[in-house]
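Spend some time on the protein that follows and explain the fold to me:
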Amino acid sequence: MVLEMNRKDIIHNMKTYGFHVIKNYWDSDKCDRAVKELTNAPKEVGQGGDLRCQFAHNYCRTAFDFLKDEFIQEAAKEYSRCHDANRVVGGIVEFNPNKEIDSGGGWHVDSKDESQFKSFIYLTDVGPDNGPFMFIQKSKSIAADLPMHSNNRISQETIDERFDPNDVIEITGGAGTCILADSTYVHRGKQIKSGSRYTFTTYFYE
């Protein structure tokens, strides 16, 4: 896939794969500021055991910048009816040897609508062991027919049975990596094995 900041490529990749990655969307200085702001913001425990700052844009200037990002908003408008940036959630996933922790509480879809735009940015370096975002390309067409339990969650057994492992994409990247995705595809945050992962996520609605 082409990893560049070109809206035509973004829309093509999202329609073809369900996501697009932009490296170095923010520089390291801005990511460092974001981490400091998020560290000091109020948080609650999320469904996967991670820490979440709801409405982070009310507490973090950098989160407000992400919410109002014009380039991302234009891409959202071109891709989906769900294109109004509603809020930014700050996320912290930290390894705990005594707990299994991820962001999002396992495999799921955000909705069963036609499409739903969502943007993420890694504020710290995210490798395979730091709880990266995982995405199943080609899952959109059958996602609504998969057996689900509470809050659109999907078991690992169903994933193993219904999808080719080659379509399960693990998105790693340095601080400042931005991910644009259609959250009606099956996705999750991988269980963290070491270190920590700081992110901002913008939720878009119709």
Notes: Strands lie at 19-22, 44-45, 51-53, 84-94, 117-122, 133-136, 168-171, 178-182, 187-189, 196-205.
